[in-house]
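JOB MANIFEST
job_type = single_chain_structure
chain_count = 1
residues = 455
[input]
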Amino acid sequence: MKPSERTIGALAPRLATGELSATALLEECLGAISARDGEIGAMLALDPRARAEAEACDAEAREGRARGPLHGIPFAVKDNIDVKGLATTSGCRALAGAMPLRDAAQVGRLRAAGAVIVGKTNLSEFSFEIRSRSSLGGDVRNPFVRHATAGGSSGGTAAAVAAGFAVAGLGSDTGGSIRVPAAYCGLVGLRPTHGLLDIAGVAPLAPSTDTIGPIARSVDDAAVLFAVMSGAIHAGLLGRPVTGRRVGVLRQAFGTHGEIAAAVERASAILASEGVEIVDPVTLPEDVLPIGRAHIVDAEFADAFDAYLARNFQPGTAPGSLAEIITGGAYLHAYEADLLRRTHDRGKDRDAILAFHARLRAALDALMHEHRLDALLYPTSMVLPDTLENPKGGWAPELAACSGWPALSLPAGISGDGVPIGAELLGRAATESALLCLGLAIERGIGPRRLPPLG
């Protein structure tokens, strides 16, 4: 089985007993990086301690000890998340030497569970967009179609997992940054309930909507990772039946792409065949759709990032402020206008934007109550990427971001051009288990995950 195919569920028991060598698995991932990353651009840095960590996992397995459910699993971490000993760059040349004081809280949890950090992944600089392009790493190309973006802003993590550079990965999500690249790269991405997970050590974009979560090859893998990160019991996350649950199909978010619509309709039909009651369509009031509105990033980024620069790094390794970064010029200049505007307008309209979030959340809650729904179903993106520029993916991922509710994106099909299609499930706060159960039913009905043509 190729490195890009294997899941945590398939690997972890063999790694824990020593039947499979963590060192050998890591070498497969490093070999894949050496062979393929030159044309994908997913990795910004490799962790030189990874081999020693893998060897330690093998030694412990020989002694009958396993660190946890991720024992020996190679892991990729988005480079806006702290790994002590490696720079946290946010993709920006000005931060190329920015050394964090400690591991991010969730990196610490993954390590404690046995994960081996392969390295840090490329991203959209400062996590600004839904492509992944940075001044440090250039573009992240989609492993399925190299002329197209892998999505963003966690595109490097998604591309790394899809291409076999790591078995799973860690991303952040402010408006869709886990789910969009997971969808474009044929993977599962979970945005947890806002505030549920500790995000200490994650570069901020907009604290009112920032969160962190897994990008994985299967729903079960996402459940394992969510359990590690949240302290939940994995067995309890996927043990509930889906029969009798109710899912609303939000056709407002479908767009006009026929293959995307057909893939999500197939996901709906699979749920119906499993005993889920489908309500199709359901509709949100037009005046609460997150279209053409001021974004919370505009209001919160500058103050949050300045505070992060001041407290997060070893003295003398990072610029002291965004103003210093702008003056130095070592950043992607396509973002100059955004940086200047967000620095100048810090805090502008924040209360009004958060009031809109509250109205949208209330409208979602009313819709769920009216139809007695457990989840909403819609495409993760209204379009598929066909260039390295920003896809006009639509507003659907903002539903989770603005409401603070959890959302799960998972593969629902593949286009005639070979691009994966993602379906997203949205549920009320703290209903990750229900979303994972519904996602597992769709995954089983869809069949084996499609793999990129890696050669």
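[summary]
The CA atoms of residues 178 and 189 lie 6 Å apart.
The chain has 15 helices and 13 strands.
exit_status = 0
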